[in-house]
Every structure is written in C-alpha cells, then in structure tokens.
Amino acid sequence: MKTLKAFFFSFLLVSLTTVAFAQTKTEKLNVSGECKTCKKKIETAAKAAGASYALWDVNNKILTVKYNSTSTNTAKIENAVAAAGYDTQDVKASDAAYNKLDDCCKYDRANASAEKGSCCDDAKCKEAACMKDGKCTKDMSCCKEAGCDTKACCTKA
Q1: C-alpha angle 84-75-65 in degrees, rounded to nearest 5
Q2: 3-class DSSP assignment, residue 147
C-alpha cells in the first residue's frame, strides 16, 4: 500500500510540474532605447506586466521575456514597456511617455519606426516566401541572400 501511495504521489508531482512548464513562453521583442537606464526601466516594466524574466540587450535592442501564458501575454508586456516610454515592435509609446524619459534615454523615433514592420522588406525575401510573422525562417537562407540577416529581428533565438 505504501508503494502504491508513493507511486501515485510521484505521478501527481511529475504531472503538475509538466503542466507548469508547458505554460511558460519565451519571446524576443524589438524595443527601442539607448542606455543602461533604459535597460532597467524596460526590464522593470516587462516584469510589472507579468514577465518572470526580462533581459534587454542594449546593443541589439532586443528584449527577451519569459512569462506564464495563463497570466499575461506579449501584448500586455509591450503595452507596459510603451507606457514607460519605449517603442516596441507592435506598440508605440505615447508622446507624453516618451517626453518623460531622461535626455540620455531619448532614442531617434524616426529611425526606430523605420526599422519596425517586416524585418526584411527586400523583394528577394518577399519572393522567396521565407518570412513568417515578419521574421526570417529558421534557416535564414533568403535573408542571407538579401543581406538582411544582420538585422536584430533576423538573429536566431
């Protein structure tokens, strides 16, 4: 009887652990910003929106987040980051939020907007149909040919 109880308890524990991990998602988001102050504010905003992990790469302008999909999503995270004053790939910060940023944090919004949208607007990528959701496919072959594989949104995860 003790063996049966131990087996049942072990099975239950493994099942619950599997369910918990199955709901964790990892995403990479383009977020405009300039410095380490931006990094702190962006990561804090993402965590306040429900991300369990947030790391913004200052050089590549990529925010990597991990979150539980039952409690938040990328839209909530992007809205929170935009509310902090930083444009994301899908949500533009309001002018009021952007204007509240420290002077060192004010990025060039014109260039940031030009980089948004489809990662590779080159005709070669569009003709080869190697894009999915505005990003290069895993092998990145047509993106390399078109020369856009160096853009942040074409980097491999």
Answers
A1: 75
A2: coil
Structure tokens at 66: 């991990």
Closest CA to 130 of 114, 115, 116, 146: 146
Q: Give the span between the Cα atoms of 115 and 99, in whole angstroms.
A: 21
Cβ partners under 8 Å of residue 55, min gap 6: 43, 63, 64
Element (H, E) at 68: strand 62-68
Q: How far is CA 149 from CA 115, 126, 135, 137, 139, in A?
A: 13, 14, 10, 11, 11
Residue pLDDT, tens place only, 72-89:
999 999 999 999 999 999
Distance CA 121, CA 37 (A): 31
User: 14 — phi, psi (to 5°)?
Assistant: -65, -40
pTM over 0.90: no
